[in-house]
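Researcher: Let's walk through a ligand-bound prediction step by step. First, I give you the protein sequence. Second, the SMILES string for adenosine-5'-diphosphate. Third, you return the three-dimensional complex as structure tokens. Ready?
Model: Ready.
Researcher: Here are steps one and two:
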Amino acid sequence: METLKNDKINITGICGIGGVGKTTMVKQVTVKAKKENLFDEIVMVVLGSSSTSLSNIQCQIADQLGLKLEGETLIERAACLRQRLANGKRILLALDEVSEELDLEAIGIPIQGENRGCEVVLTSEKDVICSQMGAQKKIQT
Ligand SMILES: Nc1ncnc2c1ncn2[C@@H]1O[C@H](COP(=O)(O)OP(=O)(O)O)[C@@H](O)[C@H]1O
Ligand SMILES: [Mg+2]
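Model: Step three, the predicted complex:
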């Protein structure tokens, strides 16, 4: 919760072995963040062990936002999603069970910072994935 409120941290990684309580924690964080009105919109996607395609992740995010993804290609759809996610609203994006490094940029997920974008919380069994994905804060569970 502290890292969500910290402007300097836009990507938080929760890592630890299976069964330790990562999914439970990230769900509780979304509930608490909602209660505290920290965000305008909260999206949670569970990726799981089988590798989910980037376009499938795009669809899941778009569905939760009530967005119709325009475009045929991954790049066009990423542009559509990026526009929606960088619209100035405070958006929390939780990515649960990330099992391989994901290219957030390619999906169309803009990261908060100088530009408008999302606050991302991800969970992974692998510490290294949290680092590869640019987590400025890693929470070992
Ligand atoms: N803080 C906790 N105290 C007790 N049980 C917990 C706690 N956190 C999670 N659990 C239980 O442990 C199990 C695994 O939790 P889960 O969040 O699915 O772990 P992970 O996502 O790390 O694999 C679930 O049955 C969950 O209810
Ligand atoms: Mg889990």
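Researcher: And what stands out?
Model: The pocket of adenosine-5'-diphosphate (ligand 1) is lined by residues 16, 18-24 (CB under 6 Å). The first strand starts at residue 11 and ends at 15.
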